[in-house]
Structures are given as structure tokens and as C-alpha cells.
Amino acid sequence: MLQPEMHFTRPFPGKPSDNNGRKGWEDGLRDGYAEGYLRGHAKVIVERNRPSFPIRQIKVLYVTSGKGFPYMPMDEAVVETLKTLTENVITVENKQPIQELAAMHRPDLVLVLDGMDLPVEQIDGVRALGIRTAIWLTDDPYYTDMSTKIAPHYDYVFTLERNCVDIYRALGCPNVYYLPFAAYVGHYRPTLTRSAIRRQISFIGSAYWNRIEFLRPIIGGLMEQGLMINGIWWDRLPEYSQYPDRIEIGKWMGPVETSEVYSGTKIVINMHRSAFDETVNNNTARVEALSLNPRTFEISACGTLQLVDIREDLASFYKPGVEIETFSSSDELMDKVNYYLSHEKERQQIALRALERTFSNHTYSHRLNELLGYIFG
Length: 377
Known about the structure:
Mean pLDDT: 92
Helix content: 25-40%
Oligomer: single chain
Radius of gyration: 23 Å
Number of strands: 12
Strand content: 15-25%
Order of helices and strands: HEHEHEHEHEHEEHHEEHEHEEHHH
Strand order of the largest sheet: 2-1-3-4-5-6
Structural class: alpha/beta
Distance between the termini: 38 Å
């Protein structure tokens, strides 16, 4: 998908005659054309007909994480997607009597998200009824001290970290599968009309210490190029007071608002948290993180260029340099920001390829269809 070259040689009605006015007029026209090109092609990708998934004649009792933000949107994504893939979905809270509810409804599957606050005795009781149980772990490998204690109580264990699969198998879990999260396109999708949000660079996420240390050497350059930050703990950044109007702290952005910001931003930075940050993690075994965070898929679903730090699993999902861009140092991140802000055609092409890949392969429908396939064939 190549954007045709633009030439501004023929005078148009209303074209200003002075040099400064003419340049502003041409820049505005070029920007409007580029915006229209991106939104138009994104609309074609989003609205393209794709193969549908089978509807299984099964009943699923789904147990929510019960944790509020940022888990609540994941609960919604799972529930709404299951409704399109199964005959019946019953949603319950993790503090309800799960064993009693399973005995009453007799589902084919009890599926739990996260499961950290759900007493394992409830799951043992469900299994005693002859009902299959599954858990989709949301935070591997950061809380493996806890997840390794609860995983053996389930018939099926799904983890978003490939490096954890053998750990759960070694604990005796009979059915363990690597199943990363995805983009829920009910939340994350490109704005298809001209976006009301106009940002150059965005970073949305918490200020973990590895992110602070990584960004500090280039924070001035990123701010000069238009960086905006949203998330908690960013007052940890020593330079925070210099940019109070560019860093919004103390707010969890909902998925729809986040999607609108992603879509209205030319470049979105994604940086994974460290698996070895003892101030927030419970990972005493120091299991290394190889796999992608959910934001990788969510950003790509919004039709914007993503710059992400390299993880081993990345190339299994997106082609670096073609559908996504990577960085391994602060200087490389700064160089690529500068490059893509001045190479609009290349930026848009990568963004549109990522959008196509995500809608074709990395939605919650793809993941939950895979999950149900492992269990029911």
C-alpha cells in the first residue's frame, strides 16, 4: 500500500500568496491528505469480511477476576467474546459460591480469569462434580510465587508467558498451554474519521523503575518531539516537575479512551516491565519474561506505529520492521522516533500492516476459539 506522491505546483482557489502562508497551507493540505489516507485504509481493513468461528454447543460458567481496573476490561472482553463462540455463558464473581453455582448450572466448563483471589477449595469442589476447570493466568511471570500454588488445582492452565509452560508442567499440571492475550476489537480499534486527538508520541502505562531508568537519558528529546505520558507513579521521574502539562498521573484510562489516544497518536511507545523488580513482583524464582504484554496487540489494533522493546516472542506475532518497530537502547528509540516523525509514508504503512495482522490473527475471538479447541477439540 504505497501512498502516492503529492505535488503542489498548480494554484488552488484561496491559496495564500506569501511564502509563510503558502507553506502553512501546503503543510495543512498534506497533513489532511495523510490523515484521510490512513483513516480510509484502516476502514477497509476493519470492515473486511473474515472467516467466522464455530459456535460450540456448550455452557461456560465464567468467573471474573474481581479486581476492577485494569482487569475489568479483560473480563468484559472474555465474556462478550464467549457469547459469540458458545451456546450459553454464565458470569459470576469470584467471591460467590462457585461450587454451589456449578452444581446448580452444570456447565461444561468453569473458566477462571486470574484466579488469585479465588479459594482453590472452590475449584477442587467443582472438579469433584466432574466439571472441567480452566484458568487463564494474567500476570506471568511477575507473580509466579502465587500462580504456582493455584495452577495445579485446575484441569487446564493457560499462561500468557511461554517461559512458564514447563514450570506448570513440572508441578504436575496435565494440560498447560501458551495463550497470550490479544486485542478486544470492541474496545481497541482505529478511529475511522478524523481524530479529535492529535499527538506526536504517547506512552500510556505505569512508571515502573526500569521504564524510568530507560527514558531518563532521552526524556528531553522526547518531550521536544511532543511526548505525552499518562499513567501512575510518574512523579518518580526526577524531571517530572519540568513537564507538568505533558505528564498526567494518578489516573487509570479506560480502554475506549486509551484506544482513542492510541489512534490519534503518530507513534506509541510500548515498554515491558521488568520481571525482576522486587518492589512490585512476586517472582523469587526469577523466571525471565520472553512473551508480549497485552498492550502490544492493543496498540497494533488502533492503526498507529508502535515502537516496542524487543522480546524473544515478538517475531512470532509481528514482523519487526514491517508490522512493528523495535528498540533495544534509549538512543535507538530516540533515533527511530525522529526518523518516523519525518517519514510519514513509512510510518503509515507499518501501522496499517500491524492493523491487518491484528484483526486477522490476534483478537480475543482467535484466542478463545483456540482455548476452547484445546479443551473440547
